[in-house]
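Handout, page 2. Input:
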Amino acid sequence: MYQDLNQKVAVVTGGSKGIGTAISRRFGEEGMKVVINYNSDEKGAQKVVDLIKKHGGDAIAIHADISTEEGVSHLLETAVSEFGRLDVWVNNAGMENKHETKKLTLKDWQRVIDVNLTGTFLGSQKALNHFLDEDKPGSIINISSVHEQIPWPTFAHYSASKGGVKLLTQTMASEYARHHIRVNNIGPGAIKTPINAEKFDDPKQLEETTNMIPMKEIGEPKDVAAAAAWLASNESKYVTGITLFVDGGMTLYPAFMDGKG
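Output:
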């Protein structure tokens, strides 16, 4: 637990399921007040709010399209009006879908870029300007992916979006470090989330995935949430511009394990 997080305020985009839910719950356990953003799953978001409140925290669920300026403005305004401040902004909302690059439509390309990359830019920019206007330090945490580093055939748009998030994060971190505004990435690997449930329920696909992970196991959303809590806290006050991979070693080129190659 990080005592300095108590009573601080966070916005978590895409907080109604998976990694976003785990981060929101962990922040609630830390005594933070959480604005939980959702796009379509209102029931899921409200369930997270109820869980946080049940354990003594405070939270509110807010619908917003984070790929629009209006959406991110609404989230910031809610944080300030409901809880009086903003300390941490987590750009977690994201999407993926599988297409061979030769068949990838502009519509599918644009929607993934809009949510994963433009949404991260808009949320980060809104948080940055708030921290600067208030002349206060702040933490921005972007949820990227191992695929900011590892190419992923049939997911060109997703990989491009996460590669963009990596350099966006590094650029913002460099630009605003003097203001003590920290900007960091978390790069999850294979995590047990609803989007992966069907794949990991298939023994063959599960084995194929675990064979790409040196630790030979699938991660949990709470593993990513633990990294987010650390990056939000003063324990990481001298850390900015990094990608913290939470991947069981997936980015370590596991094909070369045991001296192969």
